[in-house]
Amino acid sequence: MRVLIDTNILIDAAICRLPFCKDAQTIIKLCGEGKIDGFVAFHSLSNLFCILRKEFSCEERVKMISRFRTNMQIVVITNEMIDRALDNNSIKDLEDALQYVCAEEMNVDYIVTRDLKGYSGMPIKTVTAEQLLHLLESP
Predict the structure, then answer these.
(1) Is the pTM of this model over 0.70?
(2) Cβ atoms 129, 3 nearer than 8 A
(3) Domain containing 111 — which CATH number?
């Protein structure tokens, strides 16, 4: 299974945001174990670094992002992908549009996010971390 991990899932795992922490951390662990092919948009890492500045020191954030990077593949965005995101009238938030373009590029099965509404009506399915874990348990 191939999944794109949205920034909010990384935040849930990093700051152990309840009640989402355990599921988010499990998904990242499964990516690291090779049981899921996990992808992260490159801009999620810089966003994460900035968002977590109040909770963690610079050194702690660097280590955390390094761990995420080793568990998942980073999707690099090209000019053409940015243009596709900017031209996507179905998604109103640029960050979501960039995430979606990365998901398309990597031909993922799901986008794992807590922002299901941000991607509504798009061909790639969105699931929460909890929903993905239930899908993995299904025969």
Answers:
(1) yes
(2) no
(3) 3.40.50.1010
